[in-house]
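Lab notebook, bench 4. The sequencing result for the construct came back, and we need a structural model before the next group meeting so we can plan mutations. Quick request posted to the team channel:

Model the 3D structure of this chain.
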Amino acid sequence: MIKSQRLIQLMMVINAKRSFTVRELADEFGLSPRTITRDLQELSEVGFPIYSVQGRGGGYRLLQERMLPPIAFSENEAVAVFFACQSLQYFGSVPFDESAASAIHKFYHYLPADAKEQIDRLRNRVVIWNPHRTMSADSLQTLLQAIMNDSVVTIAYKSGDGVTQRDIQPIGLYASEGYWYCPAYCFLRQTYRLFRADRISFASLNGGFPDRKDLGGRSVFDWITPDLTRFEQQCDLIVDLTEEGVRSLETNVWFSSHIEIHEDGRGTLRMRIPVQKIEFFTDLIWPLGGEAKIVEPIEAVAYIRRKIETITKCYFDPMS
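Done. Here's the predicted structure in token form:
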């Protein structure tokens, strides 16, 4: 095996082991400890994150952030990854802010000159735009780490009740209209809640808090579905939608799978919801205005009328 191939294979083995001794690697590769020591020194000099541990039980350790071995990309694949990272530029923060910027720099730096010219011509012409929202990148990174490790996070969360400290176990993260949302199990409320990341002022991993082992099968697409069925009283939510109403709700995680689209482009939303959650779901329909008309339940219709009356009084009551 030539030296370059051996170094790449050595990187892959070290990534898998995380801690090791020179003798272990020498036996595995069939080489002398001196040769392995020289190879480790070369990897360290080019930035591979390993360090030696002295004394009894010593050896080598891999730093927390591991390095991947070289990966061969075609030119089109490299450009695709570049634009995937670029698509995040309009978010106020992302869970991997500095890493995304570093990845873009590396891909752009090693692209051939003609590929760079193509990218430069498309810069600011092909974008995925999102409204700019200010939020903490550190909190997003903590939430992402908790999702990867199935761990609990202690957060300070601002809501209508003021700022509360909560222990939550995140299920996932998703972005909508520039905001990041985190569906999670809330140990304070003892149920599932949806947290908006920009309202989290502080977040830290809580390794001492016992996590729930039954969240592994949930995702951002179905995190609330099993929880809704725990309510005994259910009712039908039926909403008539214009074409624009259909377009508005087709990307909504709550409603997208419950829309029936008609031949003329209009649609009907039909889904079972808990009676206790009528106002919650009605508030999600409210921003559509005249593009959506709630047919059932009557409690939702009455709730909409009260909201309209409040707004009407605000604008047309001379005493207001």
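The chain has eleven helices and 13 strands.
Will bring this to the meeting.
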